Amino acid sequence: MVRYSQVCPVIFGEGTSNELGNEAKNLGISKAIVVTDEFIIKGVGYQTCIKSLQEAGVGVVEYTQCQADAPSDVVHEAAKMAQEAQVNGVIGIGGGSSLDTAKGVNMLFNNPGPITQYFGQPPQKPGYPLICVPTTAGTGSEVTVFGVLKNSQTGEKGPAVFSPGSLALLDPLMTATAPPNVTAFTGMDAFTHAAESMTSKTENPKADLLALEAISLITRALPKAFANGNDLAARADMLLASNLAGIAFNDAMVNLGHAIAHSVGVRFHLPHGTGCALAIPVAMQYGAKVKPHKVKLIGQSMGLQLGESDSPEQIGNAVAAACRELMKKVQIPSFKELGVSRDDLLGIVDLVMSDIGFVFIPEPIAKEEVLSILGTAYDSYQ
Asked: For a FRET experiment, which of 134, 179, 324, 365 has its CA 20 to 30 Å from that of 185?
């Protein structure tokens, strides 16, 4: 038995940010809190969104202090502002952390705080209408019920489960100002979502279709978007790919690669997408041992010519090499370049095995094999 769904409707296309006001009004929003960060508000796209809301007669309260990893104190501060302003809708504009903050704000309308008590737990009651407008092509947060928040008191990062958004509005123009390094690591996050959704123990056929298209788009478009941020065709392909990958993993789930990425993020404070990139080659080598047919499809979507008689090991090695080639094209740094020693990386083994992503690996593996996988991740990409 498999289960698949899409939890949030999507409007996609260049210039769709101009429709934000009308769409908010159609959802019954008369006054919204717009949740974003100080970098985003400087962009033309953000001002387009605010103008659209105002022209549609939707009142606007702006919270602009979002931070990386969505700290719980920030969520509480924004939620207090929203409640005091008596808004009846939430609009998140930004990267994954801003969208996760917006989801948290929405959750606290009808559920008591602190938000940290819901790490790993679904909300009890839905919030108000929520619209997400991504400005990066990576997390897919606009179409998932998941997010990552950081407990401001303990520093612990926790997976949060939110009510689904009411609408995702995807405008490639909103992603055009993302710097090359952000384009690179968020793009690799999307790639990892897609590839891992196909090798998870909770895979499903809809996720496979979406993931394969996402992988094909990312392989072609990410180097172009990285090299030229004004290439709107590449930006559109990346935004669509990120969205498809988000829908894919929302119920198919991620697994080993994200367990590693979450762990290196906690221990070494690396950007999540960088951790995903450094983990996905070895995740594919492991996945090929269990599901070689799926990893072969991933490789073919990347443009590889794989033979009928290729062994699981050959398939895994070929796809891992293709992943590393893509990483080199977009200048993903190695663990060594990031100041992480091999011994330090091996030291996260217990974190990896306790991560929620590890629950969804397709076949159980012992600690010794996880250590071997981490060692390969370090040694094979320098």
From this structure: 365
